[in-house]
Design a protein that fits this description.
Strand order of the largest sheet: 3-2-1-4-5-7-6
Number of strands: 7
CATH architecture: 3-Layer(aba) Sandwich
CATH superfamily: Vaccinia Virus protein VP39
CATH topology: Rossmann fold
Distance between the termini: 38 Å
Helix content: 40-55%
Shape: globular
Radius of gyration: 17 Å
Number of domains: 1
Largest sheet: 7 strands, mixed
Order of helices and strands: HHHEHEHEHEHEHHEEH
């Protein structure tokens, strides 16, 4: 958590501890060890902070947020208004409760529905979106495009990224109104865990009507 002030570090640590406590009775994360969680949740989440800072100012959303990673650490670190998005209502209720306990409810909101439904309700309102271990790049681009304002950034966290997956995503850039703006590979502090953060910018409206019907992006990908 280099570069963060002490108050923000404490808040992130308190959030992680609270989520691990909730996780004892509700399956929010498969990681139970606090040191492993600090690496794979907190450090991994904050590894995309420079990409979030490079996005335009404005509303930030975390797609498929699960236990609130990377959304909550990035929200605390950046100070952005944030919406955590996940269709699993129990997870979002638990995360919302912890966020409220930490006094962050005025900054961090939750949405316990489908991404496609949010895209209808809040079309073109987001300046930045993150997605960590959620889906293929091409699917993420399709889901993100109607949510993003022109100039907004989709920040994709990947543990592994095949050439085929990247090439397919690049082939759909013009069709989805998205263009690749950065691609960074690195190791976490254990010097073993490989990560790659790929960022697309929405530069125009897509060439098809989005969002498609709920679930089609995954069931019948472009």
């Amino acid at each position: 958590m280099k570069g963060l002030n002490a108050d923000r570090k404490v808040l992130i640590d308190r959030y992680l501890e609270a989520i691990l406590e909730v996780n004892k009775t509700l399956n929010l994360t498969r990681i139970e060890d606090s040191e492993e969680a600090r690496l794979l949740h907190v450090e991994d989440s904050l590894s995309g902070l420079e990409e979030l800072k490079a996005a335009p100012d404005g509303l930030y959303g975390d797609l498929g947020s699960g236990g609130g990673f990377p959304g909550v650490p990035l929200a605390i670190a950046s100070g952005r208004q944030t919406i955590l998005v996940d269709s699993v209502k129990k997870k979002m209720a638990a995360v919302a409760s912890v966020v409220d306990e930490l006094g962050l409810a005025s900054q961090i909101d939750t949405y316990d529905g489908r991404i496609e439904d949010l895209a209808v309700e809040r079309a073109g309102q987001f300046s930045a979106l993150t997605a960590r271990a959620l889906s293929r790049l091409s699917v993420l681009m399709e889901l993100a495009s109607p949510l993003l304002k022109n100039g907004g950034h989709l920040i994709c966290y990947k543990a592994q990224l095949s050439d085929e997956e990247l090439e397919h995503a690049l082939s759909l850039q013009k069709y989805l109104g998205m263009k690749l703006v950065s691609d960074r590979a690195f190791l976490l502090s254990d010097n073993e865990t490989a990560r790659r953060i790929v960022v697309f910018e929405k530069y125009k409206e897509p060439g098809l009507k989005l969002p498609r019907r709920v679930g089609l992006a995954q069931k019948k990908p472009l």
